[in-house]
Design goal:
2 strands, single chain
Length: 285
């Protein structure tokens, strides 16, 4: 338990998200492998001009659509698509239970030194507000507002990539039309016309590919990461509320474990243990 609490105090850890890397590899491997099996070659789709048209047009459209502050946050948020922030709910629960046990013995003011060492800024802020004596109703209102703002920001950041996913296929069609315009200039050579038409449609492939293999999935992953993080935030707030109310640490654990993936059965068991705790205390007294 001490080791888990120490890990929670050090904060979340980052590791490579193998699902993103694996998904891109499988998708590209399947598409390019199918192209080769159909008798094509990588040279058929290796068109730098098509990439320039699609990415340049898409990025330009996103810049026109998105406010600078939201765009800057979205660019920074791109790292969560490739790297997973590991913050175990179980470790957070153990940390909160330790604080609850200490507060139950020495009062919530005894957590003042511990609160300043908390790595997570949300939990640190909530504990400090509780230690300062803020009313529980006001504390909840303030921290829920912060959760709501984080959710709003994450949604706006995800929509940046979803917007790019909407623009990319259309820009790809523009690239294909531009290629066809160049082909029409050489109608006297039928062989070159056929080759030119094939090359012209590569931009459409890039547009649809970037949209469905990267932009749209990236937006969905950012949203999923945000929901997971917000769930941890809500769990932290419930834990701090339990500490302020002076609840038995076992009751606090039963509430918090409901937020974990396999917490339903554990919560039921802990609740039964907590109900038996007052009787045991009365008997010992």
């Amino acid at each position: 338990m001490a080791e888990k609490t120490a890990q929670a105090k050090r904060g979340a850890r980052k590791k490579l998200d193998f699902t993103t890397a694996g998904g891109l590899i499988i998708a590209l491997g399947g598409i390019l492998g199918g192209l080769i099996l159909e008798g094509g070659s990588l040279k058929d789709v290796a068109q730098i001009t098509a990439v320039m048209i699609v990415l340049g047009g898409t990025i330009g459209a996103v810049l026109v659509t998105t406010p600078p502050a939201v765009l800057a946050r979205a660019v920074k948020k791109l790292s969560v698509v490739f790297f997973e922030t590991v913050q175990s709910p179980e470790e957070v629960i153990e940390e909160i239970i330790q604080y609850a046990a200490k507060a139950r013995k020495g009062g919530i003011v005894s957590l003042e030194q511990d609160a300043n060492q908390v790595a997570d800024p949300f939990l640190r802020k909530a504990l400090n507000l509780a230690i300062d004596g803020m009313d529980l109703k006001d504390l909840r209102k303030m921290m829920e507002l912060e959760i709501s703002l984080e959710e709003h920001h994450a949604e706006a950041e995800a929509k940046v990539y979803e917007a790019a996913g909407g623009y990319a296929p259309t820009i790809g069609i523009i690239g294909a039309v531009l290629g066809l315009i160049q082909v029409m200039k050489h109608l006297e050579n039928i062989e070159e016309v056929g080759h030119g038409i094939a090359v012209a449609f590569v931009a459409t492939v890039y547009g649809v590919g970037f949209a469905n293999l990267f932009f749209l999935p990236a937006g969905n992953k950012i949203r999923a990461r945000a929901q997971e993080e917000l769930r941890i935030r809500e769990m932290m707030l419930e834990g701090v509320a339990g500490i302020v109310e002076g609840l038995n640490p076992k009751l606090i654990r039963s509430k918090l474990e409901a937020y974990t993936r396999h917490g339903a059965a554990k919560a039921k068991k802990a609740e039964k243990q907590a109900k038996g705790a007052p009787a045991a205390e009365a008997a010992s007294a």
